Amino acid sequence: MDLYDVMRTTPAVREFTDDPLSDGVLERILDHARFAPSGGNRQGVRVVVVRDPDTRSTLAELALPAARRYTAQVAIGESPWNPLRPPGLDDATIEATQPPAQLSAPCREAPVVLVICLNLGVVAATDQNLDRIAVVPGASVYPFVWNVLLAARNEGYGGVLTTMVIAEEKKVKDLLRIPDPYAIAAVIPLGKPVRHVTKLRRRRVPEFVTSERFDGAPFAG
Protein backbone atom coordinates (compact mmCIF):
# COMPACT_ATOMS: atom_id res chain seq x y z
CA MET A 1 0.00 0.00 0.00
CA ASP A 2 1.01 3.62 -0.50
CA LEU A 3 2.39 5.14 2.72
CA TYR A 4 -0.16 7.94 2.80
CA ASP A 5 -3.00 5.46 2.23
CA VAL A 6 -1.80 3.40 5.20
CA MET A 7 -1.56 6.51 7.39
CA ARG A 8 -5.07 7.66 6.47
CA THR A 9 -6.77 4.26 6.78
CA THR A 10 -5.38 2.77 10.00
CA PRO A 11 -8.26 2.65 12.50
CA ALA A 12 -8.51 1.39 16.07
CA VAL A 13 -9.55 -2.26 15.56
CA ARG A 14 -11.31 -3.92 18.50
CA GLU A 15 -13.19 -6.76 16.78
CA PHE A 16 -11.36 -9.64 15.16
CA THR A 17 -12.18 -12.65 13.00
CA ASP A 18 -10.98 -16.16 13.80
CA ASP A 19 -8.21 -15.85 11.22
CA PRO A 20 -4.77 -16.57 12.65
CA LEU A 21 -1.87 -14.15 12.65
CA SER A 22 1.19 -16.28 11.93
CA ASP A 23 4.53 -15.86 13.61
CA GLY A 24 6.02 -15.11 10.20
CA VAL A 25 3.70 -12.16 9.55
CA LEU A 26 4.07 -10.91 13.12
CA GLU A 27 7.86 -11.04 12.82
CA ARG A 28 7.63 -9.02 9.61
CA ILE A 29 5.44 -6.41 11.33
CA LEU A 30 7.90 -6.09 14.21
CA ASP A 31 10.88 -6.11 11.88
CA HIS A 32 9.57 -2.98 10.15
CA ALA A 33 8.34 -1.35 13.37
CA ARG A 34 11.80 -1.54 14.94
CA PHE A 35 13.01 1.32 12.75
CA ALA A 36 10.99 3.81 14.81
CA PRO A 37 13.10 6.54 16.44
CA SER A 38 13.89 6.64 20.15
CA GLY A 39 15.76 9.06 22.40
CA GLY A 40 19.48 8.81 21.68
CA ASN A 41 18.67 5.72 19.57
CA ARG A 42 18.83 3.78 22.85
CA GLN A 43 16.04 1.46 21.71
CA GLY A 44 14.70 0.75 25.18
CA VAL A 45 11.56 -1.03 23.93
CA ARG A 46 10.86 -4.66 24.83
CA VAL A 47 7.87 -6.60 23.50
CA VAL A 48 6.14 -9.61 25.05
CA VAL A 49 4.12 -11.63 22.52
CA VAL A 50 1.16 -13.21 24.30
CA ARG A 51 -0.80 -15.96 22.54
CA ASP A 52 -1.85 -18.13 25.49
CA PRO A 53 -5.66 -17.77 25.93
CA ASP A 54 -5.50 -17.92 29.72
CA THR A 55 -2.89 -15.16 29.89
CA ARG A 56 -4.86 -13.01 27.46
CA SER A 57 -7.99 -13.55 29.56
CA THR A 58 -6.12 -12.53 32.71
CA LEU A 59 -4.97 -9.34 30.99
CA ALA A 60 -8.58 -8.61 30.07
CA GLU A 61 -9.65 -9.10 33.69
CA LEU A 62 -6.90 -6.82 34.94
CA ALA A 63 -8.19 -4.10 32.61
CA LEU A 64 -11.64 -4.08 34.26
CA PRO A 65 -10.93 -1.80 37.27
CA ALA A 66 -9.68 1.00 35.00
CA ALA A 67 -12.49 0.34 32.54
CA ARG A 68 -15.07 0.72 35.33
CA ARG A 69 -13.72 4.12 36.28
CA TYR A 70 -13.50 5.16 32.64
CA THR A 71 -17.13 4.18 31.99
CA ALA A 72 -18.46 5.74 35.20
CA GLN A 73 -16.76 9.06 34.48
CA VAL A 74 -17.96 9.19 30.88
CA ALA A 75 -21.51 8.55 32.11
CA ILE A 76 -21.48 11.77 34.16
CA GLY A 77 -19.75 13.84 31.50
CA GLU A 78 -16.24 13.79 32.95
CA SER A 79 -13.01 13.40 31.02
CA PRO A 80 -11.99 9.94 32.26
CA TRP A 81 -8.67 9.38 33.98
CA ASN A 82 -7.76 13.01 33.48
CA PRO A 83 -4.55 13.92 35.37
CA LEU A 84 -5.80 17.45 36.13
CA ARG A 85 -9.23 16.57 37.51
CA PRO A 86 -9.93 13.76 39.99
CA PRO A 87 -13.14 11.78 39.50
CA GLY A 88 -16.31 13.20 41.02
CA LEU A 89 -17.45 9.70 41.99
CA ASP A 90 -16.95 7.56 45.05
CA ASP A 91 -15.20 4.19 44.89
CA ALA A 92 -18.43 2.26 45.44
CA THR A 93 -20.10 3.84 42.43
CA ILE A 94 -17.10 3.10 40.25
CA GLU A 95 -16.91 -0.49 41.48
CA ALA A 96 -20.61 -1.05 40.67
CA THR A 97 -20.23 0.23 37.10
CA GLN A 98 -20.35 -2.32 34.30
CA PRO A 99 -17.95 -1.34 31.52
CA PRO A 100 -18.75 -2.13 27.88
CA ALA A 101 -17.17 -5.32 26.57
CA GLN A 102 -15.14 -3.46 23.98
CA LEU A 103 -12.87 -2.11 26.70
CA SER A 104 -11.57 -5.58 27.64
CA ALA A 105 -12.78 -8.07 25.01
CA PRO A 106 -10.02 -7.38 22.44
CA CYS A 107 -7.40 -9.03 24.66
CA ARG A 108 -9.53 -12.17 24.83
CA GLU A 109 -10.55 -12.27 21.18
CA ALA A 110 -7.40 -11.23 19.31
CA PRO A 111 -5.11 -14.10 18.28
CA VAL A 112 -2.11 -12.27 19.68
CA VAL A 113 -1.54 -9.50 22.21
CA LEU A 114 1.64 -7.45 22.33
CA VAL A 115 2.68 -6.00 25.68
CA ILE A 116 4.98 -3.07 24.95
CA CYS A 117 7.50 -2.18 27.66
CA LEU A 118 9.95 0.71 27.97
CA ASN A 119 13.21 0.63 29.90
CA LEU A 120 13.01 3.75 32.06
CA GLY A 121 16.73 3.42 32.71
CA VAL A 122 17.58 4.66 29.22
CA VAL A 123 15.03 7.44 28.61
CA ALA A 124 15.67 11.18 28.83
CA ALA A 125 12.68 12.66 30.65
CA THR A 126 13.41 16.34 30.11
CA ASP A 127 10.07 17.24 31.68
CA GLN A 128 10.71 15.38 34.94
CA ASN A 129 11.07 18.57 37.00
CA LEU A 130 7.98 20.31 35.67
CA ASP A 131 4.87 20.62 37.81
CA ARG A 132 2.84 18.26 35.66
CA ILE A 133 2.68 14.64 34.65
CA ALA A 134 5.64 13.59 32.49
CA VAL A 135 4.91 12.89 28.82
CA VAL A 136 8.34 13.18 27.15
CA PRO A 137 9.44 9.56 27.84
CA GLY A 138 6.63 8.43 25.56
CA ALA A 139 8.66 9.77 22.64
CA SER A 140 10.93 6.74 23.02
CA VAL A 141 8.16 4.16 22.73
CA TYR A 142 4.99 5.43 21.02
CA PRO A 143 6.59 5.91 17.59
CA PHE A 144 7.32 2.17 17.75
CA VAL A 145 3.75 1.41 18.82
CA TRP A 146 2.35 3.39 15.90
CA ASN A 147 4.77 1.68 13.51
CA VAL A 148 3.37 -1.67 14.67
CA LEU A 149 -0.17 -0.55 13.86
CA LEU A 150 0.85 0.89 10.47
CA ALA A 151 2.73 -2.27 9.55
CA ALA A 152 -0.21 -4.42 10.67
CA ARG A 153 -2.54 -2.38 8.44
CA ASN A 154 -0.17 -2.86 5.52
CA GLU A 155 -0.32 -6.62 6.09
CA GLY A 156 -4.12 -6.67 6.18
CA TYR A 157 -4.38 -6.87 9.96
CA GLY A 158 -5.32 -4.36 12.63
CA GLY A 159 -5.11 -3.57 16.29
CA VAL A 160 -5.63 -0.96 18.94
CA LEU A 161 -3.38 0.78 21.45
CA THR A 162 -4.92 0.03 24.86
CA THR A 163 -3.80 1.24 28.28
CA MET A 164 -6.53 0.17 30.72
CA VAL A 165 -4.50 -2.72 32.08
CA ILE A 166 -1.60 -0.41 32.98
CA ALA A 167 -3.54 0.86 36.00
CA GLU A 168 -2.76 -2.60 37.42
CA GLU A 169 0.87 -2.56 36.25
CA LYS A 170 2.31 -4.35 39.29
CA LYS A 171 0.01 -7.34 38.73
CA VAL A 172 0.74 -7.39 35.00
CA LYS A 173 4.48 -7.27 35.62
CA ASP A 174 4.15 -10.19 38.04
CA LEU A 175 2.07 -12.12 35.51
CA LEU A 176 4.56 -11.66 32.68
CA ARG A 177 7.73 -11.53 34.83
CA ILE A 178 8.60 -8.02 33.64
CA PRO A 179 11.48 -6.65 35.74
CA ASP A 180 12.26 -3.13 36.88
CA PRO A 181 13.13 -0.61 35.51
CA TYR A 182 10.71 -1.52 32.69
CA ALA A 183 7.33 0.21 32.54
CA ILE A 184 4.36 -0.99 30.51
CA ALA A 185 3.51 1.60 27.85
CA ALA A 186 0.81 -0.14 25.81
CA VAL A 187 -1.05 -3.37 25.23
CA ILE A 188 -1.88 -4.06 21.58
CA PRO A 189 -4.36 -6.77 20.55
CA LEU A 190 -3.69 -7.70 16.91
CA GLY A 191 -5.69 -9.73 14.40
CA LYS A 192 -7.76 -9.72 11.23
CA PRO A 193 -10.44 -6.99 11.47
CA VAL A 194 -14.09 -7.97 11.27
CA ARG A 195 -14.68 -4.74 9.33
CA HIS A 196 -12.22 -2.78 7.23
CA VAL A 197 -12.96 0.81 8.20
CA THR A 198 -11.11 3.20 5.91
CA LYS A 199 -12.99 6.49 6.27
CA LEU A 200 -11.69 7.98 9.50
CA ARG A 201 -13.03 11.15 11.09
CA ARG A 202 -10.34 13.60 12.12
CA ARG A 203 -10.17 17.36 12.56
CA ARG A 204 -8.94 19.33 9.57
CA VAL A 205 -5.45 20.85 9.79
CA PRO A 206 -6.61 24.47 10.35
CA GLU A 207 -8.67 23.29 13.33
CA PHE A 208 -5.64 22.27 15.38
CA VAL A 209 -2.63 23.97 13.77
CA THR A 210 -1.82 27.68 14.20
CA SER A 211 0.90 29.93 12.83
CA GLU A 212 3.68 31.39 15.01
CA ARG A 213 1.79 31.30 18.33
CA PHE A 214 -0.68 28.99 20.07
CA ASP A 215 -3.34 31.69 19.59
CA GLY A 216 -2.11 32.54 16.09
CA ALA A 217 -4.07 32.35 12.88
CA PRO A 218 -5.17 28.90 11.71
CA PHE A 219 -2.50 27.36 9.51
CA ALA A 220 -3.51 26.59 5.96
CA GLY A 221 -1.06 25.64 3.23
UniProtKB/TrEMBL annotation:
Nitroreductase domain ranges (all copies): 12-192
Pfam families (alphabetical): Nitroreductase
Protein name: Nitroreductase
Family: Belongs to the nitroreductase family.
Record organism: Mycobacterium simiae (Mycobacterium habana)
Family annotation (SUPFAM superfamilies): FMN-dependent nitroreductase-like
Necessary cofactors: FMN
Gene Ontology MF term list: oxidoreductase activity
PANTHER family in the record: NAD(P)H NITROREDUCTASE YDGI-RELATED, NITROREDUCTASE
Taxonomic lineage: Bacteria, Bacillati, Actinomycetota, Actinomycetes, Mycobacteriales
The entry's keywords: Flavoprotein, FMN, Oxidoreductase
